[in-house]
Amino acid sequence: MIASILMGLTQLCFAEGPVVIPDPRVQVAAAAQKQLLPGLKRAGNSIIEIPRQLGQCFRLPLGLLEVLLSPLPDIEFKEGVGDLGSGILAPFKFCIAVCEMPYEVYRGLGDVVKLK
Q: Is 21 among the domain residues?
């Protein structure tokens, strides 16, 4: 018993660096962080999707302009038709993103709260 106490004191006195006593709160936070990130990522991705889809809506007038100006050099009809098609679908994708956002945020934050 006394030998183990002396051994522990010797290790404390001759340790090469500061002795760090682990705080249980830090250990819990480090363990929880691994489970928090996927839920927060899911919630964040759904929020970021709305402005992205809103920006895609501007491809409709861009595609129309490219189709109309395709006889000019450096403007291709094929790219205009592609932008036109993407622009036609963009408002529908935007509505879907707006409708899905509350569900995805709720599920993402629910994953954060539910720690195993």
A: no
Q: Phi/psi class of residue 22: alpha, beta or left (left: φ > 0; alpha: ψ in -120 to 50)?
A: beta
90 falls within a domain: yes
Convert the pLDDT of each residue in 2-61 to its tens digit: 666 656 656 555 556 665 666 777 777 776 677 777 777 888 888 899 999 999 999 999
CA distance 94 to 72: 32
The whole-number pLDDT of residue 108 equals 79
Q: How many CB atoms lie within 10 A of CB 46?
A: 19
Element spanning 9, H or E = helix 2-13
Q: Which two tokens stand for residue 7?
A: 């051994």
pLDDT, position 24: 74
Query: Considering the domain boundaries, does residue 84 fall inside one?
Result: yes
Residue 6 located in a structural domain: no
- Collect all residues with Cβ–Cβ distance below 8 Å to 12 and sequence separation of at least 6: 19
